[in-house]
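Run log, item B.
One chain of 388 residues. Sequence copied directly from the ordering sheet:
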Amino acid sequence: MTDPFIALVDDTGAPGPLEGLRLAVKDLFDLAGTPTGAGNPRWLETHVPPEEDAEAVARLRAAGARVVGKTITDELAWSLNGSNFHYGVPENPAAPGRVPGGSSSGSASAVALGLADIGLGTDTGGSIRVPASYCGLWGLRPTHERVSLQGAVPLAPTFDTAGVLTRDAHTLRLAMQVLLEEPVEDHAPIRRLLAPSDIWEEIAPATRAAVMPAVEALGLEVDTAPFFDDPQFGLVHEAAPKVAPLESARRAYAVLQAWEAWQAHGAWIEASRPEFGPGVKARFANAAKLTSAEVTRAQRVRSGVVALVRDRLPEGTALAIPAAPGPAPRIGEEPDREAIVRLTCIAGLAGAPGLALPAGLVEDLPVGLQLVATPGGDEVLLALADRD
């Protein structure tokens, strides 16, 4: 196992609501005077150290959080596993011998180990929610663009978000209150949960048995009506008419994320020739081959998901599904990336907030619950989590 920190910082902290809390910063965010490596040695070599903190770091510092170090991330944040080809696998104390989840792997590990109280991370396709599930933590992927990404390395800009991982709901709420931009409008409290049968039926029985009691324990109305039964849902099935709607959403997410990742980094990859681990290398190679027709089809599916979320998740309702399909894979074991993204892609495609919270155990290993609200509903998710 690997230390989650790639650089330690001796910060004094400042007065504020986060005073006394230790902050671990994912190595995608600029930290003044400390190189940003984005999980890849070649990136480190080809970029000068920043002179200013990323906006998210500056906000947390100004609120009193004390930076203790920068943490390992999967390469350019394009993985959900938590295993870096160059820097190793940060420890997951909740599941020894298993990955912590990525790409916010080091931030999750530092918090789970008790080396930090707040782990600043990013979530494009699940990179906060999956580590939270694997490590038994709390985490929030905020509504898209509600937390500044100024000074952070992008992956897929229309999906990228910045949030935090913590060991308890109260600290999560405190930290996110510092990071969130002012809400456009107030949202009604969550009073109803949608636990759709068409999604839950795809979950392994052991995970269903561990996570569903956490849904019921929230004490809210639970509706199991299918999520994808709207005849107006604009999924594109011409190319694959037998593909289930959730899988179509997953494929659309994969195409659009890859397209944006290549737009963001393709020129640097071709000019700098970085060495990537096998998974990241393959994903970038495939991204370079995408066609505009594939992207157009995926965009239509995304529009359908946006409309569906608006219809299925009005104010006061949240989607309740597992944050990951099961517990953390063993180190060296190939994760079922597609199964993971089927659970995380709805929030990403819709730009919606997703809260991950500890739910239960499968063979003594943590699994998490994911609550997704309508865009802008970050505060009501945090209030529901921190209501005791």
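Observations after the first pass:
- The CA atoms of residues 234 and 300 lie 7 Å apart.
- The longest strand covers residues 354-362.
Flagged for discussion on Thursday.
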